[in-house]
Amino acid sequence: MSCLPLHLAILTCIVLPVAGTQAAAPTPPVPTTGPVMERVVLVARHGIRSPTHPIAELDARTHRRWQTWPVAPGDLTDHGRRNLSLMGAALGQYYRQAGVLPTQGCRAGAVAVWSDATDQRTLQTGDIMGHALTPGCPVATDSLPAGTHDPIFNDLHAYDTPALQQTIMTDLSTALAHDRDSRPADVRQAQATAQAVVQPGGCAMGAPCFTGPDRATWHKNAPKLSGGLSQSADVAEDMLLEYAQSMPDDAIGWGQPDIRHMIDTLMPAHNHASRLMRRLPALAFPRGHILAGMITELVAGNAVREPDGDMIAASTPVVLFAGHDSTLDMLAAIFGLDWSFADMPDPTGPDTTLGFETWRMPDGQQRVRAVIFHQGLDALRTEQAITVQPDILPLRACQSGTDGSCTLADFTRVFTSRLAAYRRD
């Protein structure tokens, strides 16, 4: 495995001759290498998609006419596929420079991909990114049969008991009660902006009220947030997707000026709703404990079994899981991570990729580092080729390095213990 970066510390010892003795031979240079990245586990959100509900339903819900999309609800667009290829290529370049992927030619078993089979968009994302990581090389892209529920990405159904339901709903209701008094100003501004843009008189006329009260209910074996915040969050995300899809400025937001700034103003509502719901530990652990456990095993250099019975080998240096924005949020809650971007108002925007890297230090110690990769919103809009440089995310639960990393032993101990405690509960 090559090094990134390669440091050579050359120690030269010059001994002056002493009268009556022979000068000692110079001490030869002693090379020491720098940290070496051994493997990485990546978890990617799918690419740009259309709204998950039919446009006619969105029209009826908002009393506004939204733009039509070239694909069925929730499907990837061609524009989104091309951006995914750019992201995969940039990740491949980064990990080739890091020495994890071969700089030339193909290496059997260098990349393994597992995609959520629930949706077309995640299946295609895994295939596109996997092949873009190592162009022209065979890649093992795998999943359950299309349309099948995959417990790796959401195991909540297996733990759907009255006790768990009560725990989740109690915690969510408590969070909402606290939020009523402490909601950040930018979130309130986002809701007010959604109201002004979509239906200025909606609260008084019986039309959508984006500043109305929030409610938590249990619906179809999962918690559901409804009310003003969730409506604002949906509008914000749909407008961001229209912008990322490269729809004309005057077609987004019904003629509102400076649509890019308006999206930045609206997105805090979406991000806040995600934090309240998706990052709620009582929900994140039952949803994501299988994937979190696989990540913990893989960074330690162990093989893991996929739901179809196949194995991801311990020797696989790059493993990619293709999931959703909710996947990134639940892992953020489990591993205690947080991040934001200056050029992308959605921290889990299309193509955003979370990484867990295993490094071997010069003294032989192994360390784990969490990183996040993204494309800026305008880069997505224009299909701009990118060179990625990750943001390093402190692993505060076990942090022992100046860069926020953990020793592999501490990472394994802390998160194996957390997941075991959840399973006992």
TrEMBL record:
One of its GO terms (molecular function) is hydrolase activity. Gene3D superfamilies: Phosphoglycerate mutase-like. Pfam families: His_Phos_2. Transmembrane segments: none annotated. The keyword Lipid biosynthesis does not apply. The keyword Hydrolase applies. Keywords: Hydrolase, Signal. Residues 1-23 form the signal peptide. This is Phosphoanhydride phosphohydrolase. It comes from Komagataeibacter intermedius AF2.
